[in-house]
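## retry 2 of 3
previous attempt timed out at serialization; input unchanged, resubmitting
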Amino acid sequence: MENPPIVILTDFGDTDPYVGIMKGVITKISPRANTIDLTQGITPGDLLKGAVVLWQSIPYFPKGTIYLCVIDPGVGSPRKGIVLETDHGFFIGPDNGLFTFLLQKKYNVWELKNQSYQLQPVTHTFHGRDIFAPAAAYLWNGVSPKDFGPSIGEPQKLPIPILRINHESIIEGEILYFDQFGNAITSIGKFHEEKDTLQFQIWIGTEGKRVIHRNSSVIRIKKNIFIPWAKSFSEIPPNHCAAIIGSSGLLEIAANRQSAERLLNLTRGESIFLINKYKNGVQHG
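## retry succeeded, writing output
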């Protein structure tokens, strides 16, 4: 892609100058490059949330986009800096699992070692400025990813979230994280609407498809709390929660203008079950 955007994802927040400094580095090297803030609001050090947000977002950017991703609690340690190439584009950042959900198809990866494409001296505390932002800018300028350093094997991966089909009537997942509204984003998905049914296609792993009927299925959390379905936030009564399909196709536990996290005392990593109450015309308990 000619003149791809550079999309920036970090946990730096919006009160410190770190993101602005990285953009300054990019502008000095590539004055015409267009930068887009995906988010700077990832909870500090939250690699899982960053990895899921990245997976959620890339379908909406053009192929060939350059992603500058800095969630780096191990900055200054022996962990590598990498540039990852996939069908979606190029991903630059620390090799710490942040790119876990991009590795299910063909990819190439190189270590960022060539000091010619880094700010000198490289500090132990700000590789976003000294290594990753320059790499994004030089890549935009047309430098081949092969010129940054040697090809490496498989990048680091995070533990894969729970998502399993226990048998034909139960899908088990977990709460991945909470958004700023208190909605619980879960690992159960990916879904898309098709007439009166939900088509389920597992998004991590290779298991097959399932057809889910809202009127004959229910969501269970904790030991005995059952959550009904809703199609939108406005359908949920006050002080109640419901299961909805979020914009990325993952199942969410949500409330209407309230926090589902607080209403149900939910915690990250908590198990969640989608139970098909009817299968082949037979009711299951």
